[in-house]
Structures
1.
Amino acid sequence: MKFFVDTADIKQIEELIPTGFVDGVTTNPSLIAKNGDDMAKTIKAICSIVSGPVSAEVTATDFDSMLEEGKYLASLAKNVAVKVPLTMHGLKVCKALREQDTKVNVTLCFSATQALLAAKAGASFISPFVGRLDDIGEKGMDLIEDIVVIYENYGFETEVLVASVRTSQHVIDAAVIGAHVATLPPKVIHELYEHPLTKKGLDAFLDDWKKTGQSILPKK
Ligand code: G3P
């Protein structure tokens, strides 16, 4: 399972890279706005430190402008995946960009039929938003289950990129279902390794070690 980091904050990405589990990055217009920096500059900076796909989202809504924006974003770095919304124009742009071998992430997916259309348009990634479905009383993970089965039934190569992840349980559920990727806000990434028994166990080991008066490294 691949982990992408869902942020436009370069410092947070830099902090996580040495862990070895940053397989890519996703951004969206809200995350770019939150970060406050110029979009092209931000995407270039992220692409210079992350070798996996970095999603950069178009903001136009008509086909021609969306395609122009998509081509521009793709020109910023080799590993840009152009993110387009799941609309008719977005799907057409997805197909056009895929024909030029540009990676495309189709975003704002809330139904299995939408995911099926994105796969038929050749999407590299489909981004179903599980947290936002949970917010309206639906089970976001049921959608992931359906999409994974549908894609397997027909051998689609589109990767299921679980988005709008809010909890570590979302990550576990996505992994059990077999989703290809989960994009995680840094806060959720930190929740993945934290456990009260790890902290308690480490404190006890360090207390006992201190009592021995030893040091592992030979004294200089
Ligand atoms: O990747 C999409 C994600 O950023 C949306 O998350 O928490 O705003 O629903 P959220």
2.
Amino acid sequence: MIRPDRVVRTVCPYCGVGCNLDLHVKDGLIYRVTAPFDSPVNRGNLCVKGRFGYDFIFHPERITTPMARRYLLEDDPGTLTRRWRERHRAPELGAASLQARRNGATVHPTPWDWVETDWDTALDIVADHLVRIYHRDGPDAMAAYGSAKALNEDNYVLQKMIRALFRTNNIDHCTRLCHAGSVAALQLSLGTSAMSNTAAQVKQADVLLVTGSNTSENHPIIALQIKEAVRKHGTRLIVADPRRIELVDFAEIWLPLRPGTNVPLFSAMAHVIVKENLVNWDFVRTRTECFEEYVQSLEKFTPEYAEGICGVPAEDIRRAARLYATARNGMIMWGMGISQLSTGTASALTLVHLALLTGHIGRDGTGLNPLRGQNNVQGSSDVGVMPFHYPGYMRVDREENARQWEQLWNVEPGGLSRKLGLTTTEILSHAHEGGVRALFIMGENPMMSEPNLEKTRHHLEQLEFLVVQDLFLNETGVYADVFLPAASFAEKDGTFTNTDRRVQRVRAALPPHGQSRPDWQIVCDLAKRIEARLGRRVSAGWDYTHPEQILREMAQVNTDYAGITYERIEKVGLQYPVPTLDHPGTPTLFTETFPRGRGRFVPVDYVPVAEPPDDEYPLTLTTGRVLEHWHGGTLTRHSLIDELYPEPWLEIHPVDAELLGIREGDPIRVESRRGKVVVRAHVTEKTTPGVVFLSMHFAEAAANLLTNDVLDPQAKIPEFKACAVRIERASEAELPRVDVVVHRGRY
Ligand code: SF4
């Protein structure tokens, strides 16, 4: 039995559940991870990623020294324009030569070689070029991506740098790609956007509706709580999902809707609730508005009409509506099957309507609960890494909000931009002359996470200057001009905010690997250099000696976090809003009122997915995650758990497989109007006829080469969950060589 030198309590770096981990450290290595039983989040449980997926920290391919392209260190800046125009010819050339040099080979130097350098040189290069572009093209030419994997403190200083120094709101992060539709709907109807309740309250719900969420694979510990609630506490489960996910085995009713048909399904449930007088009239009268207009809009959504669109039997829709409406406590949880659509906002609104009609909100065991994906996507949004909001969801185009932040940061009155910034997808599509010229990416990988990757690649190539700050030189990093190595979650102190608004302590178990540094320190050092070059001083400053100072600075204006100190969350996190230093936190929102006053019914109509199946592309592709991997795979594919699920599989229903002559394990070509990939077929009844599923983790068969980049008009979220594809048999030789692609792709 190994005795650890120390055991450090921290938070899992993968999903939004926010499980607490105990990292067992011996001789500078984490050799074991256990789960504390006294954590109210996971109570001794972890999924495979939290338990075993931490060894990426020590992976030999991790970049731990700052790097710049050779031409940036040697050339006259006047040649830059010519250099970046050359980029598209060989973006991975420098990466290949870095790998070759590491293997001891002699490499003929090219301008695109990566050259390892020191921090001062790297940060001076970045500051010089960002300021050069800013002076030449102004604020609209500048943009940044924050990171839902980074700390609240990392993200706060990044948005402060972009707003206070470059005077633009062009900053966003992957919330745009996961729950932007939910955020827009909840803001519109209630005036806020986080989960209203706590996941653990599921045992107090007598009916739970789970939709668009393969919870067992995406939020496994919440799935455990759901299963326990069903088995031990009598919670009755309704699952609405196109796939026969594991939770269906625990459900009383399964509604297998066609992808992208949420609006008719849930509007039909609302129709039944109104027609059968199952409405909570007291709640509707006292807590809501715009009911009459909304009820008129429901008229056409009969269960039979919905059945014709979504394929769910009308009688099952009636049963589900009655079960949810007559519950004492009805709870709704949803995932990206609701939000990742061009109708993501409308889809989420239909769920909000169900809660408002029945009054299933504002009490324990009820509520509207979008399960947030990344470990800190909630926190990154809270601290203002969004183009429309300062920290605390304060609109940037409201004068009184801007003034408060100007005062805090000592920016001259009117100095901060009142113009809404660009979203992630828009930042890239504006990457052209006269648009965005410089992009700073902290811990995101758009070359895996954006839809329609060929277009994304083209946009990245148009940038004049790209900085990537990350752990690995991933699919986006190969396009960068400068790479800044960041510390991992286990090497820094700070906070993450989980899906149910719990702000928790992240603690360093190890010093940063090599020369890597915590993101907030890198950003602050860079900001000081930019400030000096701009001759612009932000008196709130960048001289933080501890991340808690950053959180406390933000909490002066973002009152949701006003009562949160590191001392108060030393043992157990606090769920915001925490408005004062003696406030106990808020596990359940909306007990008396909604942030906008009354909850608003917003009539919605059914709009089909942008690309329905047709004769040419007869199947619908839907995408998502698998248990063993995480997002673009930057972390899990550098972990031993990659061996549990080493290659991509396309799930296809036996009926479709037979029609196409495809058997289990056959290589198949999957083609959409935007691209194609070759993978093996997994013939399974987990998917439904006409629908195929591909996970998003594998660079060698990237699902997002196929997906549609059409956007939801309000939330600007792409339609990842439905596009038309065709499938045909391929040869073994066409399958990507995983061993080659994975390792080449990392450099
Ligand atoms: Fe980590 Fe999420 Fe798994 Fe918990 S459920 S261990 S937070 S990945």
